[in-house]
């Protein structure tokens, strides 16, 4: 078998393993070699926090199962990497990138991990992330953690990979694994997908079991897949959720897709790229609905932040109480960081933690107001737009060109809050090059409309053709 198994799609890899053309052990070894060559040496992308020490033992078990003719799942023998805030009941740590949880090993798998194992996947390792999923500081740096250091964008290594699922996106883009799992609260899947030129799906909140994930906010947290194409992302989505998405691949003729251009207008190149994507949809027969604008009060984003603060404290305290981490609660985590500030906080502080600690619980009026003015208000606005314009989906620019690592991340193009705050699904699809960096478009839909979104995304992906692979360059 050709040694470059890492060039195959996840679907292709599953097929060659199923046919016996290659073994799970050969597949795992190919990706371990690539991690050594690209992540640890060479471009040194720093996407992986750790490799599963029992990965070869698991691969042998999968090969033994194949030899016996046992029933095999859709991901049998396929290596997958996970963001390091997801519990695995094995030797790998669930650290959230923080030195405070460096030795935290969960007793049991998160339900989504149990589903992956049942589908036959091989857990290859865990990926770096923006520490605490980018919810520690107002000045946090995407892709940096006190355990893993800085993950780098594979297209241009001095550019941000975005976050917080930085390592999961980079791992797929750089072919360190054919599939990966990330998590999102607001933008943490779709934004790194856009910045790193891969497909990312943020499903409807609740579609994937969230137990066993280090939490930020119960209202908006979800896991989701990264892949190099939409079909592979759907394959992983179905394994994570235990359902069948059954993509709607019917003709787009007459399908009404609303266009949100406002966010893209701050960058001429992004605006042009979005326009080209819209033209492509129109050419595929979609009915493009222009002139749409989500008229949201500024207070919605302040309310979202208050929601995150209240739910983070509540959720993290519950998580820590249920795990033997050495930390009792958020207050003890804040104290740990203060005591180890030289290694945990050399670049930025913990303002979000401190603000969350000051909240008064989920029964207080401030929290109820935050829910009404964020989640409820966003859902009402999105539902109204879909209803009035009879839409199948919305399209918007996912991201602008990645910024230099260490530069301010404020003010960059993002459409993630629409789906994030509402809890609705979205899919980021790589579309164009702007300033020599990947730019994606996002499709956003109503709850549990993933099949519709996937159908539109697949059609656009097919019209786009092959997306260029990373070159691991370094600009001045």
Structural class: alpha/beta
Strand content: 5-15%
- Biggest β-sheet: strands ordered side by side in the sheet: 1-3-2-6-8-7-12-13-11-9-10
Mean residue pLDDT: 96
Given the C-alpha coordinates, what overall shape results?
globular
Query: Any low-confidence stretches, pLDDT <50, length ≥5?
Result: none
Radius of gyration: 21 Å
Looking at how many chains there are and whether they match, the oligomeric state comes to single chain
Distance between the termini: 40 Å
Number of strands: 13
Q: Could you spell the SSE succession in H and E letters?
A: HHEHEHEHEEHEHEEHEHEHHHHHEHEEH
Helix content: 25-40%
Largest sheet: 11 strands, mixed
Count of DSSP helices? Answer: 16
